[in-house]
Write a structure and sequence with these properties.
By secondary structure, the chain is α+β, with helices and mostly antiparallel strands. It contains six helices and 13 strands.
Amino acid sequence: MYAIVTDGSISKYINHPKSLVIGDVRYPAKIFSLWSSTELNAIGIYEVTFDNSNKKDEQWYINTNQSFAYDASAGTVTATYGSATAKDHADRNATDEDGNNILDKDGNQVINYGLKTQLIKTLKQQVANELARTDWYITRNTEKSTAIPSAISTHRDAVRTKQEEMETAITNASNTPALETLYTYTEQEDKSVTRPLGELPTLEI
C-alpha cells in the first residue's frame, strides 16, 4: 500500500500499483517495481509502514481503525492502531443510546451475550460432537442389550468430567484477558504445546 503526499499531507492512498497522474505527469504502474523508494518519495509517493503493536486478537478485542500519519522529517507514512477495547466477558442487558433497556416483542429483556456464554456454548457443541462418535454403543445397548465396552464408558465419563472442569474455568475467569490466557497455547519445557484450559479427551475408534 502506498500514500501520495501533497503539500505535506496525505492526499490519496494506493492499494495496488497502477498508472497515476501527479501534477501534469502520468506515471506508469511499473514505477512501483522499477523505481527505488528514494525516487518514489521524490514525486510524493511513500510506501506505508504498518505498525501493528497495538493490534490485538479479534477473538477477544475490538480493534480501532488504522490511522495514517506522514512524518516529514523521517520521510515515512505509518499506519497505526489505537488502543483496543476488550469484548464483554459477561452477559449484559442490551440498551439503547439513552441507556434504556431494550425489550423483545414479548417484553423480555434482550441480552447481549458475552464471551463466557459464547465459549461455553461452543464447548457444549464440541462435547456433543465427541460423544456422538460413541452414541451408537449406547443405542446398541438399549436395543440389543449388548454390553458397552468399559473403555467407551470410561471415555464418555472423562469427556463429561473435563467439560465440567473447563466450564468452571471459563465461568471463573475474572475478565477478558483471563479468558484469553485460558485459550493461549504456549510451548512447555518438553516442547509440547498446551493451553491452561486443556483439551477434551478424544478416543480412536
